[in-house]
Amino acid sequence: MRTTHDTTPLVLFGGTFDPVHRAHISAARSVSRVLGDAPVHLLPNAVPPHRPQPLAGGEQRLAMLELACADHPCLIPDDWELKQSGPSYSLLTLQHYREQIGNRPLVFMIGADSFASLHHWHRWQDYADLCHLAVVPRPDSPLATDKVLATFPETAPDSLMRHANGLRLMLQGPFLDVSATAIRQALAEKGDCPALEPAVVAHIHRHHLYNVAKSPSPESDTRPHER
Ligand code: ATP
């Protein structure tokens, strides 16, 4: 863990974003706010190594991210992983950005479900030398392993910002029961989903993504439930 005088964090938020939804956006905004309006780069992966491959292509997922982030200056869609070849290991992205920003705090944000499986990720122990973690709660997520918890000691935002790497921030919210899997299903069945930004729904219809049903059905109500 290294101390730093340049306390402006850079936050990286990797994901499939197939498609980007309101829980992604509100989680990214929360992390940004807690860390003094820090910039958050949202990076769609090209070839996710830990899960089934995305339905929509990289360009489409990036285009939807650009629409969803348009009103939020702290949120920056980033095509770095899409431009790389081979599996999109987060480690490579973290190494790249660590080289770019010197000793500034680098923060890798993930949902609690991803955090719970971090011990299966490629060279996860090396992350602590490169970045902090910011963990966003997600309904019904199991706990991370003791080894993962011990590798990233929990801290508060001000302490995290005084260090370059190696600590963990646990956010208390938002707590949104939303998943892209459920959204893809709702789109195919009903043609709409309130957990998506309207501009993203319009893009999906325009490009006939996710086997979208022709028109939204009036009884569709898959609004995110905040707990
Ligand atoms: P899918 O249902 O296709 O698995 P997803 O909704 O989990 O998709 P991803 O793009 O796979 O979305 O997730 C990117 C990151 O966002 C991951 O770190 C994931 O844990 C986090 N995330 C996704 N949805 C939520 C949510 N509702 N609350 C908190 N974090 C979330």
UniProtKB/TrEMBL annotation:
Pathway where it operates: Cofactor biosynthesis; NAD(+) biosynthesis; deamido-NAD(+) from nicotinate D-ribonucleotide: step 1/1
Gene3D superfamilies: HUPs
Domain Cytidyltransferase-like as annotated: residue spans: 12-185
EC number: 2.7.7.18
Single annotated GO MF: nucleotidyltransferase activity
Keywords noted in UniProt: ATP-binding, NAD, Nucleotide-binding, Nucleotidyltransferase, Pyridine nucleotide biosynthesis, Transferase
Catalytic reaction list: nicotinate beta-D-ribonucleotide + ATP + H(+) = deamido-NAD(+) + diphosphate
InterPro entries listed in its UniProt record: Cyt_trans-like, NadD/NMNAT, Rossmann-like_a/b/a_fold
Enzyme class: transferase
Pfam families xref list: CTP_transf_like (PF01467)
Similarity field: Belongs to the NadD family.
PANTHER family xref list: NICOTINATE-NUCLEOTIDE ADENYLYLTRANSFERASE-RELATED, PHOSPHOPANTETHEINE ADENYLYLTRANSFERASE
Cited function: Catalyzes the reversible adenylation of nicotinate mononucleotide (NaMN) to nicotinic acid adenine dinucleotide (NaAD).
Name the record gives this protein: Probable nicotinate-nucleotide adenylyltransferase
Lineage summary: Bacteria, Pseudomonadati, Pseudomonadota, Gammaproteobacteria, Oceanospirillales
